[in-house]
Every structure is written in C-alpha cells, then in structure tokens.
Design goal:
alpha/beta, Rossmann fold, Arc Repressor Mutant, subunit A, 4-stranded antiparallel sheet
Length: about 350
Amino acid sequence: MSSPSRDQPVWLWWSGGKDSSWALHTLRRDPTWDVRGLVVLINRRNGRVAMHGVRRRMIEAQAAAAGLPVRFVQFDWAASLTEHDSAIQEALLGVCSTDGTEFVAFSEIFSVRARRRRSELLERIGLRPLFPLWGRDPAEHVAEILGAGLKALVCSVETDRVPARHSGCRFDENFVAALPDDVDPCGEYGEFHTFVEWAPGWSSQVSAVSGSRIERYGFAFAEIGEPPQEAKGETAVPPKAGNDPFDYYARLRRVREHVDQHLEDHLDLRALAPVAAMSDGGFGRFFREATGQSFHDWLVARRLERAVLLLREHNEPIARVAEAVGFGSERTFRRLFQRRFGSTPSRFRSQVRDGRA
C-alpha cells in the first residue's frame, strides 16, 4: 500500500467521547489527513452506542456540529465475537470503498491490547489503522482538552472501579480529582465513558443534560438527552392554593428528580438550569417565585430529609451519611442538622433506636 500523502482520506472510529473528539481535532490540525466522516458502533437491540449507552440521535447531533457525515455499524450484543468482528469489517469495507480510503483512525492512547486488536481487525481486510493520540501522557492529555474548553458529561462508569454516583456528572477537574487513585484519568481501560457537548472546531454546542441513572452489567449508565422543550417565558405563574409547585410545574418535577438521583454530586443553579431548560439567572428567579424559597435553601432541606432516612435505616458513620447526601464537610452537616431538627445526628439516631424519634 502507498505511504500517507497530503490530504490522505481517513474515517474516524467514533464513540461520542472526549478522546474521539480530540482525535478528530488532532487529525484536522494535521494537513496530512482529510477526515471524511465518523463510524459508530451501536447495539441493534436498543439503538445505543456500545458501552456508552448514548442514543443514536445524540451522535447525529455531534456529527452535525462537527460538520461530518456519520455511518452506523449495528451489532447484536448477544452475538459471538466472530459475528461481531465480521459486522465491523463488512461495514468498514463498505464505508472505505466509497472514496478509496485506506485508513481508519482510533483514539487509543496507551492500551497496547486495544491497539493490537484494532490493528489485526483492519489488516485482515486490507485497511490500515491510525492512532493520532498514541503515546500521550494521560494527565497531560486531560489537562490539555479541558484547558481547550472541551465540554462533556460522564455517561457511564464501571461500578467496581468508579462509584456509580459519578455517572451523569460533568467531566471536569473536580471529576478527575475525585477518581480513585488506581483509575486512569482518561478512562483508557473503560473505567468511565463520556459524551461531548463541544470540542474545538465544532460549529455549535450540542444541547445535552444527564437524566435518570440505571445500573446493569456492572455499569452505571446516565441517560443523556436533549433539554426538554417547553413554552417560552421564565415567569412562574403561582399554582392554585394547596398545590405543590413541584407537581404543578413540569420543569420543577425534572429538577426534583435530578436532585434526588444525584444528591451526592455538586449541585447548584448552574448545574440544574439546563435540567429546567432555563438560563442560570432565570432559573434562580423562577424557583424563588414558584416555591417561595431559594434553590440553595430548598437543596439543603432536601439533603437533610434524605439524611434523616439514612440515620433511621442504616448504621453508617455520620461522616459517610454527610457525604452520601452531598455535604462536603461533616462539620457543616452537623451544624445544619442541629439547626433544622434541634438535635445532633448522633443524638437523633440514638432517639430512633430508643423509639423516641
């Protein structure tokens, strides 16, 4: 086969995650390569990206923002490895034959096993693999992509490596700092996966919010979808007397559901405004008008209510209870609990055991 020349066509194996997006950015900065499009592996049974759990329409939105066509390779999750490989090889041959492309690029950074498998898969059908990110230092790689403004959500985590509560979080410095010491900051071994909303070179940002979380097959998947579309206007019309605003307003129901599912995470107006499909300031004003209290005060109360349940039903240390409901400081948790209930968490638990609470 010929050696690469200027404007050599290449298709990019795409997952929708941060490394795929950075591989595209890297290829586009190199005049040697002409990226013709994206190839995505999706599960035929549910129409979602393998291991990421992201729906097809979200990938199509990414491709539109990146200005590239996208081809989907369907596979059966229950199929044998041979059938899986055959489906990929057939699809890649079909894609590459349309423009005479010899190269398919992948976003592996240092996994020798993954590189070898991808290389062997392509070489058997006469195609050539390309690894534009190979050999990068993981910590430097993460620092560079975050420094460039790449925006992403964590769409799935391997629960025996990363706590399930991190699924649905924003991929940022705080997320990386909270990872267990033995987890690669890039997730190169599949410890976690991401969905990118914006990367350098994209014409627009993909609107996305994380929703409900499910756990199965040893992974925790966060539902990544578009912000709900509602009628324009950010002024709260008070509900009828006696009606709970969280039942009356659809956007507040979504906020309450999101908070209850991500109570351990960092939550503020900025994090919840996209769930309500509003601006940060607009959401703050709407929340106060609709509920009669600030979002911060409501969130503290919600966390303390969950803490009461944990103190009643479990025997976890007080510090763990504080962490589980989203308080970064045990001292802060104890102080706010005392103020709200007139009792320390430890005394409250004792009263529960004695049947006095």
